Every structure is written in C-alpha cells, then in structure tokens.
C-alpha cells in the first residue's frame, strides 16, 4: 500500500488551509506528509541547532525575522512564528490588524516558514491572569480586616464565595469590603465574574484574526496551543478557524505537587487523555501536542532540598519521555513539540554539574531519532486494529490498558504497542493482517523477534512502556540505541 497524500479540505464557514493537510490530518511539506518534531527553543549555538536537526527535529520556533528564518533554513529545518496577541482582534482592531499585516507580509514567502502560531494559552489566560491577581488580594483582605469584626466577616464571606465559584456574589462582597475599609481596591477594573464574557469576546477576536491572516497568506497552517484546561465548548469556539490545535501537558514525575493536569488522571497517561480531548475540541484538524522538555525544578530559582531528595521536580527519564511521545501519537497526535529545554540548568537531577546540556537533552534527541526513523510508518494511515488479549494480572485494569496501532509502508508492517498501565502485562495480538502470516516481526531496539502464525503473536511489556515491532529493521536509527 502506497502512502496517500490526498488532501482533505477543512474549508468551512470560517475558512481553512485544508490543502496543507492530508486525510490523516498530517501536515504536508512539498506534497509529502510529515510528522512534525518541534522545539520551542531556538538554540543560539549553531552546533546545538545542527545536532537537533540531525536528530530529527524539523520545526523550530522563530521570531518574525528574515535573518532568524534564514538560519533555521540553512540548518535544514522549518519554522513556526508566533503572532502573539495581535491575532486577537476583539480589541484595538486597527493597530492589531496592521501589526498582523506587517508580520505576515514580512516573512510569508520565506522558504523556512511552515506554521503561524496564535497567542499561547489565550483561552486559559482569560481566567488565570485574573485569578493570579485575586488570590493575593483575598489574602490582603484577611490581613487588612484583622481586629475589625465587620471587615473580618466580609473577608471570610468573600473567600468562601470565591472558593465556591460564586463569582458574581464574590464581586459584590469584595466591593463592599474595600468601601467599608475606606481603601481603594488593589486591583481596580479586575473582575472574575466577567471572565466568561471575555472568553467569548476573545474567541470571536481570534477567529477574526485567523481570517485576516488567511486572507494575507493561505499557504501556511495556523496553530493554537492551549493550556491543559477549559471546557470543550470554549475550546471549540477558539479552534473553529484554526488548522492545527493542541495543548501543553507536563505530568512528570507524577506526584501531588505537579498539578499541570486537571483531569482525574494526573499520571503520564494524561498525555494521551489530553490528545484525545484536543481532537474532541477540534474535530478533523491536525493535533499538535507540546510535551515536557524540562523538570519542574528547573523553573525554580532555588530547589527545595527535601523535595529534591525524593525526586519531586526532577526531569523526565528517557523512558518517560519516550512513553509520552508515543502515547500522544497512538492517540492521534500529528506533531510533537517540546517546551522548556531552554530552561534546563547545567546540573543533573542528582546535583552533579555538567558542561553543556544535561542528560534530558540527549534523551530527547534519542527519542527524536527514533521517531524520525519511524516516520514513514507514523504518517501512514492506521490499519484495522487487532484484538488485544491481555493475560490475567493482579491489577484493577479489567483487560484494558494496552493500545495497539498497525501501519503499512509498501511491503513492510509496523506495529505500535503502548502499555498505559502501571503493571507489566502479557498480551497477544489477534486478527493481524493476513499478509503478516509467516513473517518475522523484529522488536526494534532489542534482540527479540517474533513469528506471526494464525494472524497472531504474543509478548509481554513493562509498565508505561512502548514496543515497536516491524518486519524490517530499516525503521531503526542505530544512534537511538543505548
């Protein structure tokens, strides 16, 4: 079966750059579907940029500057450009429209440009920016009220209403508190009860902004990245005119101090869960997931020694990074991008100082090499899924947890198996393609091989692990081995 690059039109009442996506929602470059592997960091060191591109990263964030795009182009990669808040035409329309026009016209014909990005997490920021100012104000109300009975009552009432999500009532009590305290509000004009209205207004503004960009340049994809938050209805409002949609999710290591996921599942599996959710929020559009290129400790000025001792805030391991990438892909991601590599400190998780970049960087290069070598299969349309039969185990998983995807590249087959559980599991795949009968499957990056008989074979897999089986070892990159 030859890969199809037939384009799927995404045109709608809001427009779309459908010719740039194939029917599997993969972005096409020079007519060929590509798995996008991206970096938010644009390394200043040419040698580091070269290393990243040679490892398989093919999309680098760039400023809207011809010289910056030239550099990425020379390195052999494509670029994305963030259009920032100018894409939201809900306010300051004249100035923002002109800013969009200037940016798009300046670089739209550059051979490195592939994607325009909207303002990061704009939907979430309509809420978060407000709550970040109100939380400390509520604490100020408490200290201001100390020893004043009437104000203490109002302060407690305001906190209670806010924590219960009764925002209109909270704003009334908040205004009464500062009036009776005889003090101006520390955040004049900042309200939480108008956030839903601001969301709707901004969503309309983003749609208008995307339409403006598309009128200037219909040859490049427009992408929106969201926070791992918000309702599907609100997400769909923002996403309706975009071509590619996704969110960032950084769940490693799973513990109560990492609250990046607000789903019930806060484990590594939340990557796959959010990948599904982003597709529900943008049906038929490409899905770009932004994964973890840092440890939460990297974002702190000074690490907490007690937390460090038990691994809180550490960076993802290679196995975790590999799992998260495949978990996104098997759930439908068309692009994998990494945020945070620029913030990695020159020290390993155990405190050992390093010259150059820490181990996580090498781990991500290794993951990129593996995915790049497998790209012909990853951009191919999935075949009919086989039946997964799991061996009996002690876990509360009830036969669920192993995901499988079968791809075909000409005469070769590739099978992805992802174990989303915390248990090691024996399994068999039944009902594989007839043409696999009698053929050998190599488990890539291992010494194992399996014979397919009766359209099935069996194996075992560790917790939160990935196995890739292929009828040819040409899908391996030797440098992606240990």
Description of the molecule:
By secondary structure, this protein is α/β, with parallel strands linked by helices. The chain folds into two domains: 285 residues, Alpha-Beta Barrel (TIM Barrel), CATH 3.20.20; 99 residues, Immunoglobulin-like. The strands form four sheets. It has an eight-stranded parallel barrel, surrounded by five helices. α5 runs antiparallel to α6. The radius of gyration is 25 Å and the shape is globular. The chain starts with 26 loop residues before the first strand and ends in a 12-residue tail after the last strand.
Which characteristics define this entry?
TIM Barrel; eight-stranded parallel barrel; 2 domains; five-stranded antiparallel beta sheet; Immunoglobulin-like; 19% strand; alpha/beta; 482 residues
List the helices and strands and how they pair.
Elements: E1 27-29, E2 32-34, E3 36-39, H1 46-54, E4 59-62, H2 66-75, E5 78-82, H3 93-107, E6 113-117, H4 122-145, H5 149-163, H6 167-181, H7 195-216, E7 221-226, H8 232-239, E8 244-247, H9 270-280, E9 286-292, H10 305-309, H11 318-330, E10 335-339, H12 359-373, H13 375-378, E11 387-390, E12 402-409, E13 412-419, E14 425-430, E15 440-443, E16 449-451, E17 456-461, E18 466-470
Helix pairs in contact: 3-7, 4-5, 4-7, 5-6, 7-8, 9-11, 11-12
Mean pLDDT figure? 93
| Fourth-level CATH superfamily of the largest domain | Glycosidases
CATH class of the largest domain: Alpha Beta
Q: Using the 3D structure, state the CATH architecture of the largest domain.
A: Alpha-Beta Barrel
Share of residues in strands: 15-25%
Give a quick account of the main beta sheet: strands, pairing sense, barrel closure: 8 strands, parallel, barrel
Structural class: alpha/beta
Count every beta strand, where a strand is a DSSP E run of 2 or more residues: 18
Rounded Rg? 25 Å
Distance between the termini: 33 Å
CATH topology (fold) name of the largest domain: TIM Barrel
Largest sheet strand order:
3-4-5-6-7-8-9-10
Number of continuous helical runs: 13
Shape: globular
**Unreliable residue runs:** 1-18
Number of domains: 2
Helix content: 25-40%
